[in-house]
Design a protein that fits this description.
Elements (H helix, E strand, L loop, with lengths): L6 E2 L2 H13 L4 E6 L5 H11 L4 E6 L19 H10 L4 E3 L24 H4 L3 H16 L3 E5 L3 H13 L5 E5 L19 H7 L1 H14 L4 H15 L3 E9 L15 E9 L2 E8 L1
Helix pairs in contact: 5-6, 8-9
Bound molecules: adenosine monophosphate.
């Protein structure tokens, strides 16, 4: 019996392996990534393994979610190392598509409303259209039973839940908690862009976010607490703050003043030394 390969690069190879597993009665879990993997990504594999028999990860730097002037060209590419890490983490197959996933005549776009509106969309209007396309395409190719996405990209997680529900894609979307560095900075492939000074400033984000969430939970006015957090970020050395917002944890409707009975989430996007960071936490 030939050994199944660990890395596949074509849709045909991918579908063939998936159908073999299906025939053997296995369930399939899927973890899409853009590579440059860290422990946060690997935690998604661990989570997926709790919910499915065979785990497939993908590595694809999706051009449609980058705008002109963003870091598509310089996004870190470490495929060999990534594949090794995935294997050690217990992943069963890595799909690294060769070339573009968008055909020459590709002409379809997706527009998502609801949780995709506001926050990231106010600053990166192209982003969720690009995410919607690639996630839909990958889910259609892999056809997994479950797919795991990180709460690190909280608005993305809710948006993907919306898309799969609205488009009847038969997959269960599972969220996974944010993995952090020792100082609380959320792990991210883009953290490697930082020099030492930038990295030290970035470490303040989590502390300021936690303090803000605590204040709001204790009953502080949301506008006052978020304004204080913005000031604290700027004083810590962040060059700009796109948003510090409190939103309903399910709909992402902004809660401007008080929590009411809502389950709330604090979401932040801020830039430090040219690197834009996003983070969030439960309130
Ligand atoms: P990316 O490679 O940045 O597109 O991320 C791939 C997946 O990993 C997404 O579902 C992210 O939300 C998730 N992810 C990224 N960073 C973290 C982290 N620090 N903790 C948990 N999941 C993460």
């Amino acid at each position: 019996m030939p050994q199944p390969r660990f890395i596949v690069t074509t849709e045909k190879q991918l579908r063939q392996q998936v159908s073999e597993w299906r025939l053997a009665g296995k369930t399939i879990g899927f973890v899409p990534t853009m590579g440059a993997l860290h422990a946060g990504h690997l935690s998604l594999i661990t989570k997926a393994k709790k919910h499915a028999d065979k785990i497939i990860a993908s590595i694809y730097i999706n051009p449609t979610q980058f705008a002109e002037g963003e870091d598509l060209g310089s996004y870190p590419r470490t495929e060999k190392k990534d594949a090794k890490m995935l294997q050690v983490a217990g992943c069963d197959l890595v799909y690294i598509p060769k070339g573009s996933l968008y055909g020459e005549h590709h002409a379809t776009s997706l527009h998502v409303g609801g949780a995709a509106l506001g926050l990231e969309t106010d600053y990166r209007p192209h982003f969720f259209g690009g995410v919607a396309l690639i996630v839909t395409k990958l889910l259609n190719r892999v056809q997994p039973d479950i797919a795991v996405f990180g709460e690190k990209d909280y608005q993305q997680l809710l948006t993907i839940r919306r898309i799969t529900s609205d488009l009847d894609i038969p997959v269960k979307i599972i969220g996974a908690p944010i993995m952090r560095e020792k100082d609380g900075l959320a792990m991210s492939s883009r953290n490697q862009y930082f020099d030492q000074e930038g990295r030290a400033i970035a470490g303040h984000l989590n502390r300021i976010m936690r303090a803000c969430a605590k204040e709001i939970k204790a009953g502080a006015d949301i506008k006052h607490a978020t304004d204080t957090a913005i000031e604290a970020l700027l004083s810590a050395g962040f060059s700009s703050v796109d948003y510090v917002s409190v939103a309903d944890a399910k709909t992402l409707k902004i809660l401007p003043h008080s929590l009411d009975k809502n389950q709330a989430r604090l979401l932040i996007a801020a830039t430090c030394k040219g690197v834009r960071l996003i983070d969030n936490c439960k309130i």
